[in-house]
Amino acid sequence: MKRIFVLLVPLFLVGNTASSAPAPRPNILYLYVDDMGWGSLGPNAQFARREQGEPYVLTPNLDRLAARSINFKRAYGCTVCSPARSSQQTGFHQGHTFADRNDPNNAKKAIRKEDVTMGDALSKAGYTTAYWGKWGYGGSKDQADPSIDNVQTLPTSHGYEFVLAELHHVRAHTFFQPTLWSAPAKPGAAGGLELIPNSMAKYAGKAGYPNQPALQNHPEYPETAYCDDSYCLAALDFVRTQAKRYSEKGEPFFGLLAVQVPHAPFDEIQQLPEWNKDYKTQPGFSSLKSQTQQWAAMVTRIDGHIGNLLDSLEDPNGDGDQSDSVTENTLVIFQSDNGGPGGAANEELDTNGGLRGTKGSIYEGGIRVPTMMSWPAKITAESKWKPGTSSDHVIDVTDLLPTFCELAGAEIPVGLDGVSLAPTLLGEIEEQRVRKFVIHEAGKSQSIIRGKDKLIRNGKKLELYDLEKDRAETNNLVKGKQKLVKELEVILHAERTSEPRGFANTYHQWTGGDGAITSDPGNWSDYEYANAGISYLKDGGAPQASWNAKISNDGPKASKALADRNLEFLGLEVGGGKSSRELQLAEGVTLTGRNEVRISEKGILSLKGGVVSSKRWVDVRLGGEIRGKGKIEATLYNSGKVDLVSIDVGDFSPLIVEGNYQESEEALLSLEIGEKEGPAALSASGYAVLAGELRIEAAGLTKLAKGIRYPVLRAKEVRGKFSNNNDSVLVSDGTPLRIHYSKKEVSVSVMNRDDRS
Question: What pLDDT sits at residue 11?
């Protein structure tokens, strides 16, 4: 057999293509409301009510934001408050995050020190970070004198520098807490937080809040402030200051405003002066129930604050000159944590948009949430997604952490349930990674949404709905689609949604020496989550499907780990240490990383006839390498090296990718090419995206025959090309080859002398 060695090498090494400078990292302002139903947003239901002459929610500033945003009509949060914030911050759904329901003890334990949050990632990436509002974890529920109960779960322990927040969700069941937790704090303060009075005193006499109804200067304003006023004015001060720093020095900021509005209690809004003045002229509003009027006034009040924040991006110093505007390169997200509650507001204002169920429910009314994203520099009239339009692209709250990481140039934590939306926002649709399903829990109920299909499990009862045709979930299709039901139920169970309270993914490190086997529990670190003498979670032994694990090497010499039997993880990273670490799969061994297998810098995965499986992808990063022959049951992303000939693989055997093969410009691919009628060295059942340069080594091989096309790669569809000049490549002995492309194959052949240039 004739053998040719083919390499795809990085463009920056070849030097024949100029790379464009990366886009500046955006500022990120994340506006997160509490219990605001999907239909509360203008584009989802309220615009229609206004046009029909019915009472509607007044949100002029959210309407302004909607006009320049993508409105994601199929965006999902969680069913209730605590899991929503845990999933938001960590990127794990309720099957894997520690807080899978409103457990009274979540405040003491929900986010662990090992969990990487938005604040952790963006602070490490150089962003100035802030959090205002309902955090829900780390402090006691006492109104008069709350204490810090768990330092490791505080916002200040997870990258947030500026904080004004409530640490216990029960304490947030009033809008007039006497004190709030603040950072930066005085030296020695527990967890870097201190209690300060919840007051408007620091804003007394200040001007510059034109969109906000009567605040600090009104004689009837309460001595203890309405907490969302405090959160929003702290956010406004931060945005004004940081916007100026960004416009002058290019230093990006990240702020997350997690207000309590419009969560109950509703009637406390009436303690504020002129609380309902915006609705006094709306026809029919005065005849609505009291709860409806209160709820609407709460939403309109927070809308005013949002208007101030949007104005501060346009004109940070408020002098009327917008030359210092940072709006263009600021990503603004508006979202709710879960669906809206039942009651008068939902009945009279359609705040859940006709969806079935309410907050706490696994039906769409409990988990589908209003979500808009604005980024004027990228979401333009010329972009794929135009401002003011709606998208049916399914997104989940777990997607925000990886999205922010990618936009900030930060490392995305391994094995997350969320998927970065950065390519969609940047208009690079073909680069968008796909998450095939989303998962939710609601006590004893669970659901999986895959495309238009949604399976619900309520105890032993199963329900199946077609969300494309039946958004209100009225027609249960279980009886007629048993095969689909069983398929989705298997996935739902594997996502750990039926595990008992307190179950979560765990974190583990490889501790074995050179040549150690992965099935030996002694070669892995154990995991324990404990606080204040209480152990909440322990996990050890050999690898399990709930592990997020890393096999690295901080020693001075290269070393190997041997997989002697099947391995299963939630997420696995190989590499990332000081020296190279190779994970070798024995013949017939399957390595499963349910969410991800990542090969990082100085990491090597040797297949040796083994199988690598994932429900999503195998990711070879720059400096990482996959060697050998075998099968990959997932999409393979390659920004490093895939080398099929550098180890002794015996008889020729191709690498089979049961999914897509997609490479970046940095990819290096070494392939073994067979005869004309033989299989290609790499075959993909999906599409193959090519971007690197093709190089062929042929030292010591039989002279190539003219007139024969040697297959390099076959796929369902071939997209893109290698970056070689004139679609040609030289073998190491000087023989020139022509690269041929068809819809499903890439091959090479010896060039005729007349074709050479």
Answer: 30
For residue 134, report the phi and psi dihedrals to the nearest 5 degrees: -80, 105
Name the packing angle between helices 400-408 and 81-90 (round to 10°). 30
Indicate the helix (H) or strand (E) that contains 384: none
3 state DSSP class of 613: strand
How many helices (H) and strands (E) would you count in the chain? 13, 40
| Number of residues that make up the chain | 757
Hey, what are 9's tokens? 């090498």
* pLDDT tens track for 384-419: 889 999 999 999 999 999 999 999 999 999 999 999
Sign of CA dihedral 104, 106, 107, 108: positive
- Report d(CA 438, CA 420) in Å as an integer: 14
β pairing state of 611-620 and 506-509 = unpaired
Closest CA to 369 of 41, 10, 733: 41
Half-sphere exposure of residue 357: CA atoms within 13 angstroms, side-chain side: 23
Q: Is-contact 716 680, C-beta < 8 A?
A: no
- The separation between CA 116 and the C-alpha centre of its own chain, rounded to angstroms, equals 12
DSSP 412-452: PPTT-SS---HHHHHT-GGG------EEEEETTEEEEEETT
**Can you tell me the distance from the alpha carbon of 536 to that of 502, in angstroms, rounded to the nearest whole number?**
7
- Our CA dihedral for 609, 612, 617, 620, rounded to 10 degrees, sits at -60
Closest by Cα among 293, 371, 263 to 57: 293
Q: Under DSSP, is residue 212 helix (H, G, I), strand (E, B) or coil?
A: coil
Give the distance, in angstroms, between the CA of residue 257 and the centroid of all CA atoms in the same chain. Answer: 18
Alpha helices per DSSP H over 315-438: 344-349, 364-367, 400-408, 422-426
Domain boundaries, the chain: 5-19+500-706+717-724+749-755, 27-440, 444-494
Look up tokens 């090479």; give the residue. Answer: 748
The mean pLDDT of 494-509, rounded to a whole number, is 92
CA distance 455 to 447: 5
- Helix (H/G/I), strand (E/B), else coil: 377: coil
Residue 91, amino acid: G
Query: What per-residue string of b and e applies to 337-346 under the rule 16 or more CB within 10 Å gives b?
Result: bbbbbbbbbb
Residue where the block lists tokens 């299709």 = 477
Average pLDDT along the chain:
90
CA distances from 359 to 80, 347, 497, 536, 650 (A): 6, 14, 19, 28, 59
User: What's the gap between Cα 42 and its chain centre?
Assistant: 25
Question: CA–CA distance from 730 to each of 676, 692, 696 (Å)?
Answer: 19, 15, 6
Location of structure tokens 């996959």:
626
Which residues of 105-198 form beta strands (DSSP E)? 128-134, 162-166, 179-183, 194-197
- State the Cα–Cα distance between residues 621 and 593, nearest whole angstrom: 16
pTM of the model: 0.94
CA distances from 539 to 498, 521, 533, 535, 546 (A): 18, 11, 17, 11, 10
Helix, strand, or coil (residue 392) = coil
Residue 14: the pLDDT is 30
Assigned architecture for domain 27-440: 3-Layer(aba) Sandwich (3.40)
Name the DSSP class of 146.
Answer: -
Cα separation of 419 and 424, whole Å?
11
CB 263 within 8 A of CB 175: no
How far is Cα 233 from Cα 239, in angstroms, rounded to an integer? 10
Q: Measure Cα distances from 295 to 89, 265, 298, 344 in Å.
A: 27, 9, 5, 9
User: In which region does residue 208 sit, left (phi positive, over 0), alpha (psi from -120 to 50) or beta (all else)?
Assistant: left
